[in-house]
Amino acid sequence: MARATGKSEAVYERLKGDIESLRLRPGARLSEVQLGEELGASRTPVREAIRRLAREGLVDFAPGEVARVAAISLGGVRALFEFRMLLEPEAVASVAAAGVADGRVLVPFGELLARLEEFDESFRALDAADQARSYQDLYDISEGFDRAVITACRNPYLARTIGDLRSQTVRLRHLSHSGPRRMRTSLEEHRAMLQAITQGDAQAAEAACRHHLAQTLQALIDSLTGQDLAMGAHVQVDVAR
Length: 241
Hints:
241 residues, mainly alpha, Arc Repressor Mutant, subunit A, 11 helices
């Protein structure tokens, strides 16, 4: 039983990573048999992993119990960011305030800011093609920032709720950082948040976070309404604004 559970966890982590990175596209069919053959697993751990991903909103079951990677809809993206706007600025502000009382809270954010400045220096020296290829480095910094906020947030309910949304936010991040221009603006937005936190300025940190979320949402709307051909018909664009 323990071995099956371990195999299910390995399959889950692999599928989740492929969905979040868009290697498995929205709407892609998830065949237990095919996935089992590809991953060297029986159908049971594959089925367990798929159902776990469904509970996280990354997999949908079509009529007849056919599992597919969950589609991305414009309405769903707007709803997600409306919720994030209620949570994340408060969390970022609370971290900045906590850092005033305990400087140890700020250490990981200072390290991230140093990494960001180093990345920026190298990013400016690249041409557009190489800038686009450096996406993973900026992505890692963005991910590190999110994890640091969750870890440093003093409200466990707030931290847990933000953490629970990460399955959705990670996948969308790959859409929002879609080119050098957005990478540049995202870099500046993260710099503003990191500087405010390390300076213990809760008000500025909250404002910078709100600005970042608004800009990210707009980048996603632009990407989705542009009907990126790589995403296909399973990027559902609703007409409600």
